[in-house]
Structure to design on (347 residues):
């Protein structure tokens, strides 16, 4: 079997930052209850590992006892949630991805300027709820072109569209084109709201998938960007499967055992899950791994202000905690006794 692992794949800088916030807070306050509002990222293994360390994930601020620490997830929250945390005298640590915060700030700015905001995204996604909450009276969510006739437009000359950061660029383009056709004067954000990590991972799959017999995307079912990767692979003409881990592999998917398989991971999926899936396939079929470098990512985000403040109070220098996400590297050590032939290629 020939396994192709694209770069980039897996964790993005925002996910790594959010996970590190929980890790650091656990280390700062061992034994103290820690609460996270919603899943810190949409991956069941990441969440499960934190539950194993005593983290409490809640869907309502009311579930957090007064005076305790609460972490806001990478997807962001609305001002109403922040106020609820303040009213309960919670110590709130904001792990919102800075690229999501960018969209929040755009919503605030355009609403203050008197624009109606058409937010392209999935209505039930936490990120969309948080962004819409910044300007609820000015914002309407657009999930598909079918929603456009039902929009309540006051002035077609005072419209702007924003987007959820984890959308498929292809799907977003269809909706945006339809909005531009319906409202020719609609404004667009100064730069794309779909984040670099989403775009890069989608482009890598779009480029490689047509040459593969099967695409396996590692990610949880509630991970928007993982679902989009699966859809993009299918659109490119490949058979695509979304799996959480190696336990979900169905070996009946493979007819000969010498297929070419593209193996990627959503932005919230840990790299060790990639290694485990590779190990399962190579143990069963033998074969080789080729790492295909499409984009090199070297992004870093600073530790959130509230956590830096807590670290300083505990005598820890927060300047040592800048987080950098670099390109994953395949090593023999990650695969134990499974013999590997590893090659690398830059596209």
């Amino acid at each position: 079997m020939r396994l192709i692992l694209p770069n980039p794949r897996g964790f993005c800088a925002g996910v790594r930052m959010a996970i590190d916030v929980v890790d650091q807070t656990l280390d700062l306050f061992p034994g103290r209850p820690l609460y996270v509002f919603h899943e810190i990222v949409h991956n069941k293994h990441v969440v499960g590992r934190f539950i194993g360390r005593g983290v409490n994930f809640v869907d309502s601020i009311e579930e957090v006892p007064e005076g305790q620490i609460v972490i806001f997830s990478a997807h962001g929250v609305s001002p109403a949630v922040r106020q609820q945390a303040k009213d309960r005298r919670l110590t709130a640590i904001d792990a919102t991805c800075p690229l999501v915060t960018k969209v929040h700030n755009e919503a605030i700015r355009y609403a203050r300027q008197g624009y109606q905001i058409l937010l392209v995204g999935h209505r039930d996604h936490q990120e969309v709820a948080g962004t819409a909450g910044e300007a609820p009276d000015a914002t309407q969510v657009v999930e598909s072109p079918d929603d456009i006739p039902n929009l309540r437009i006051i002035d077609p000359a005072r419209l702007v569209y924003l987007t959820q950061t984890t959308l498929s660029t292809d799907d977003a383009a269809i909706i945006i084109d339809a909005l531009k056709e319906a409202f020719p004067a609609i404004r667009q954000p100064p730069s794309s709201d779909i984040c670099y990590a989403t775009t890069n991972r989608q482009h890598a799959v779009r480029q490689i998938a047509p040459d593969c017999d099967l695409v396996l995307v590692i990610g949880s079912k509630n991970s928007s960007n993982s679902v989009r990767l699966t859809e993009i692979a299918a659109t490119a003409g490949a058979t695509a499967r979304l799996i959480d881990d190696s336990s979900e592999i169905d070996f009946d998917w493979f007819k000969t055992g010498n297929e070419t398989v593209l193996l990627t991971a959503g932005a919230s999926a840990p790299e060790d899950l990639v290694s485990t899936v590779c190990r399962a396939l190579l143990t069963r079929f033998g074969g080789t791994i080729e790492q295909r470098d499409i984009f090199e990512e070297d992004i870093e985000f600073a530790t959130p202000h509230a956590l830096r403040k807590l670290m300083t109070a505990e005598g820890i220098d927060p300047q040592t905690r800048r987080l950098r996400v670099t390109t994953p590297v395949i090593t023999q050590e990650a695969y134990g006794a499974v013999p590997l032939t590893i090659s690398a290629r830059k596209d």
Summary: The chain has ten helices and 15 strands. The first strand starts at residue 2 and ends at 7. The domain at 2-12+196-300+329-338 is CATH 3.40.1010.20 (Cobalt-precorrin-4 Transmethylase; domain 1).
